[in-house]
């Protein structure tokens, strides 16, 4: 691993930390998700399915998303009856069998869990392919259950990170994926992070705020080994453009070695690309301007943790919701599309999803346009 490049990513993480945890972004939720899981996890719980669902209630899109919902698959099986629930519980017991950090053995246990639970889903006659288990979801389960001995995982972000820092281990993907190699990379990241005292103080301060917001003091101590932090660095590097500087530097070096004819051809190609990106951006902007966020003022909403409440005020995309004697603030459209709040009218969720999709497209186009224009300026 190139530690100089790793340091650049850590520096970018520190520089952008307030952005990643402002009113619009809330990456500290990963710590909350694990703390919440630890609060409720009990493999001997009388109702394993109910316990597991409650433990995952703060995980947002770490396990389930709009495409794949393996967590709901576990819930589905447990609802088929006591015998099914006990089979699921036994699968988790096997997954958690002591392996003394033998990661090759752990990976085999992960694969066995996937095969067994998916076989149960087939046996139960479930046709919801999105409920099926996969190694990424099971790694997430392990990182929630035993956070000091596991690391969260998302393939796209991990690949980009490994490529950037020139990690020589072969993490692979699909059947060639190596849990041992991935965890080794994470261990190197953790070792480097331990020297970042300013960063540790910054995160400790943010976790104190999170403890106050969630009434969960345990969140401040949930990541004693900095395993969640290592994954957060990997995740944010991809999703907050930490790699852009390296991209520009590389292309500048390539441009300097090009002949005048090559430069002209490349410049024309980039101009055409810019025109295409600009057209896509303009289209997204026009469509977005025709949509407005739903007005939820005075409407009843339901939160997994706080129960039923009423929207007292809505100022632009900020909601103030009264839950009994408690007042909580949320932002649209995330509060609805990520499932924090369930409105009375399900149509407003679809409306918010369309808005979020267009906002994401605008952001993607703007970012790609910026990078392509930078590349063009280096050729001229």
What descriptive keywords fit this protein?
alpha+beta, 5 strands, five-stranded antiparallel β-sheet
What does this protein structure show overall?
With 380 residues, the protein is an alpha+beta fold. The chain folds into two domains: 3-239, no CATH class; 244-380, no CATH class. Helix content is 60%, strand content 7%. The protein has 16 helices and five strands. A five-stranded antiparallel beta sheet has the order 4-3-2-1-5. Helix 3 (29-40) runs antiparallel to helix 4 and helix 13 (244-256) packs parallel to helix 16 (347-379). The chain is globular, with a radius of gyration of 23 Å. The model has no long low-confidence stretch (mean pLDDT 89).
Topology:
Layout: H1 3-15, H2 17-20, H3 29-40, H4 48-55, H5 70-78, H6 82-95, H7 103-123, H8 135-145, H9 155-164, H10 179-193, H11 197-214, H12 227-239, H13 244-256, H14 260-289, E1 300-303, E2 307-315, E3 318-323, E4 326-331, H15 334-337, E5 341-343, H16 347-379
Mean pLDDT: 89
Structural class: alpha+beta
State the low-pLDDT regions, or none: none
Percent helix: 55-70%
């Amino acid at each position: 691993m190139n530690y100089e490049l790793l340091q650049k990513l850590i520096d970018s993480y520190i520089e952008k930390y307030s952005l990643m945890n402002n009113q619009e972004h809330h990456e500290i939720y990963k710590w909350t998700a694990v703390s919440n899981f630890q609060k409720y996890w009990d493999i001997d719980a009388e109702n394993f399915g109910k316990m597991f669902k409650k433990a995952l209630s703060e995980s947002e899109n770490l396990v389930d998303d709009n495409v794949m919902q393996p967590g709901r698959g576990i819930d589905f099986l447990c609802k088929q009856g006591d015998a099914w629930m006990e089979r699921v519980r036994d699968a988790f017991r096997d997954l958690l069998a002591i392996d003394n950090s033998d990661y090759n053995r752990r990976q085999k246990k992960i694969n066995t869990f996937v095969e067994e639970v998916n076989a149960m889903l087939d046996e139960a006659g479930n046709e919801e392919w999105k409920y099926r288990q996969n190694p990424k979801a099971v790694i997430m389960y392990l990182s929630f259950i035993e956070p000091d001995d596991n690391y969260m995982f998302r393939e796209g972000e991990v690949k980009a990170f490994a490529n950037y820092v020139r990690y020589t281990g072969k993490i692979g993907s699909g059947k060639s994926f190596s849990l041992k190699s991935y965890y080794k990379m994470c261990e190197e990241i953790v070792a480097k992070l331990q020297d970042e005292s300013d960063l540790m103080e910054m995160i400790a301060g943010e976790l104190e705020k999170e403890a106050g917001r969630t009434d969960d003091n345990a969140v401040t101590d949930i990541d004693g080994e900095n395993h969640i932090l290592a994954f957060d660095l990997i995740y944010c590097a991809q999703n907050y453009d930490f790699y852009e500087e390296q991209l520009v530097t590389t292309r500048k070096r390539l441009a300097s070695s090009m002949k005048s004819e090559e430069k002209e051809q490349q410049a024309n190609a980039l101009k055409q690309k810019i025109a295409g990106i600009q057209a896509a951006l303009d289209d997204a902007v026009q469509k977005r301007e025709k949509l407005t966020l739903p007005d939820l003022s005075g409407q009843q909403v339901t939160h997994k943790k706080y129960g039923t409440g009423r929207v007292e005020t809505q100022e632009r995309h900020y909601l103030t919701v009264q839950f009994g004697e408690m007042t909580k603030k949320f932002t649209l459209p995330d509060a609805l599309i990520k499932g924090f709040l369930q409105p009375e009218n399900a149509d407003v969720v679809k409306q918010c999803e369309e808005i979020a999709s267009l906002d994401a497209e605008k952001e993607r186009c703007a970012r790609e346009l910026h990078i392509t224009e930078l590349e063009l300026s280096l050729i001229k």
